[in-house]
């Protein structure tokens, strides 16, 4: 019986990075959502800036 318990304990893998990240995000709550939204807005701003500066000027 002890041998079966030892085998079960050995087969348990450590949690993956995705599971740890999800657990951390749930624990932090609104702080994670706040940082995600700031990152999203900055990324959209950079993309709009690059699109505006890289727009070709075609004379009409």
SSE layout and pairings?
Layout lengths: L1 H10 L5 H12 L1 H24 L7
Q: What features would you describe in this structure?
A:
This protein is mostly helical. It contains three helices and no strands. It has helices at 2-11, 17-28, 30-53. The longest helix is centred in the last third of the chain and has 24 residues, at 30-53. It starts with a helix and ends in a 7-residue tail after the last helix.
Features:
about 60 residues; mainly alpha
Strand content: under 5%
The low-confidence parts are none
Largest sheet: none
Tally the beta strands.
0
Helix % is: over 70%
- First and last CA, distance: 86 Å
Helical segment count: 3
What is the structure about, briefly put?
The chain is an all-alpha fold and 60 residues long. It has three helices and no strands. The longest helix is centred in the last third of the chain and has 24 residues, at 30-53.
